[in-house]
Amino acid sequence: MTVSKIIIKYLLFIFNLVFFVGGITLLGLSTHALKNREDYQITDELLPAVNMLIIIGAVTLILGFLGCCGAIRENRCLLALFFKGLLSMFLMLLAVGVLGAISRTTAAQEQVKKHMKLMLPLSEQPKEVQVSFQNVERSGFCCGLFEGHLDWGNSTVVPNSCNCTDSSRNCTVLDEREIYATPCMRHFMTWMDRMSDSLMGTAFAFGVLMILGMVFSLVLCCQIGSRKKSII
C-alpha cells in the first residue's frame, strides 16, 4: 500500500465524517426553518428550495456514512455508490442555486407582493397570523405591508407592535400615538435577498466539497483496482 493511497484513504474518511456531520446540521436547520416558516418568513416561492435542502441534508447524512465505510474498508462498491450519490446531489444543489437566483428576480418579487395583498386587511387574518406579523413589525421596525397602518383596516385596530420604540426610525403620529411609518414590505424584500444569498452560498460551499469528494473517491477506486490487478 503506497503512502499516497493511505493519505487519500484517510483524507476521504475525514471528508466524509465532516460531510456526515454537515448533513445532520443541514437537515436539522432546514427542518426547523420549515416548521417555523412564519417566523422565518418563508414564502411559497422559497418553499421548494427549503424542501430541497431537507432532502439534500438527509441524503448527505446517508452518503457520509457510506463514504466513511467505503474509505476505511476500501470497498469499491460503496465508493461507487458514494460517487453516484454525490453526482446526483451536485445536480440537486445546482437546482437550489437556480431557485435562489430566481427568487431575486423582479417577477418573483411581484408574485410575493401579489400573495401579500391577499392578507389585507391584516385585522381580518387568523389570530396566529396576526401575532406572527406583529413579531415581524417589532423586529423590522415597520407597520403594515404596503400602506403602513392603513393595512390593518382602521386606526382602532392598529396593534402596539406598530408603536415607534426607536426614535431614529421613520415614524409618524396616529391618534396621539407615535407609530412606524415604513411599511414592512421593504423588510420582506430585504429578507428575501438575504435568504437567496444564503441559499446560493450554501449550494456553492457544498458543491465544492462534493467535487473534492468525487475526485478522492475516484482516485481511491482506481488505486484499489490497480492493486487487485497487480495481485492477479
Structural write-up:
This protein is mainly alpha-helical and 232 residues long. The chain has 2 domains: 3-108 and 191-231; 121-184, Cd81 Antigen, Extracellular Domain, Chain: A (Orthogonal Bundle), CATH 1.10.1450. 69% of the residues lie in helices and 3% in strands. The protein contains 6 helices and 2 strands. A two-stranded antiparallel sheet has the order 1-2. Helix 1 packs antiparallel against helix 2 (47-73) and helix 3 runs antiparallel to helix 6 (185-231). The longest helix has 47 residues, at 185-231. The two termini are 15 Å apart.
Mean pLDDT: 76
Major sheet size, sense and barrel closure: 2 strands, antiparallel
> Strands of the biggest beta sheet: in what spatial order?
1-2
Q: Give, in order, the helices and strands.
A: HHHHHEEH
Structural class: mainly alpha
Question: Which regions are unreliable across 5 or more consecutive residues at pLDDT < 50?
Answer: none
Q: Note the gap between the termini.
A: 15 Å
**DSSP, total strands:** 2
